Amino acid sequence: xxxxRWTCAAVSDVGRVRSSNExxxxxxxxxxxxxxxxGMGGHAAGEVASAIASELIGARLCCLGESEAxxxxxxxxxxxxxxAGSEIIRxxxxxxxxxxxGTTATVLALRPDDNYIVGHIGDSRAYLLRDDNxxxxxxxxxxxxxxxxxxxISREQAFRHPQSNIITRALGTDPVPPPDLxxxxxxxxxxxxxxxxxxxxxxxxxxxxxxxxxxDEPEPAASRLVSEANLAGGxxxxxxxxxxxxxxx
Length: 249
Hints:
alpha+beta, Phosphatase 2c, domain 1, five-stranded antiparallel β-sheet, 11 strands, 32% helix
């Protein structure tokens, strides 16, 4: 058992425009495993893909042993993303209504060795608020992000860009792409946010950071962020998952 405990909450909403919610979320406070997935491929396809990813990845990572070394954990992350992508491809091949379905997947695991690991494919994001510094952990796999990195457009121009929905890596493509992995050490007071682009396409990062700073509990913070996305237009499904890290009593 590590030095830390955590509190957490997730909220997922259909938004103001869509008729169905293709986002999926997995949350296990006991295991310290959290997943947000944003499906694509239309009603009854995108939601299937995101559910496969969140449930398969989440359940598999909940079986991690406390004594497993970080290298073994990293290998398991790579394997579960591969397995989730392969399962999406398999199910799509068996049902013509699901051909082309896919999903993002952003995963956070808090470890008993007081490390965290984030796995990521797509444009759902992971953020960390630490000592008043709000930073994005992940890098979007998207056309817009590539233009920012090349200096073609600014970060400000990327916000609400009309091509922001074009992603360059997702679970459901063959071959299954590898996830990006990020590892760090936990600190007391850390606040993590996993979210779908229904939040980040509607609410600026500055504003998201402000909300996390002033909300002392995960559930009000997650709810407030969803409300702000909807007030800004709610053009997509929006999912927020907030985790606060505390020292054990």
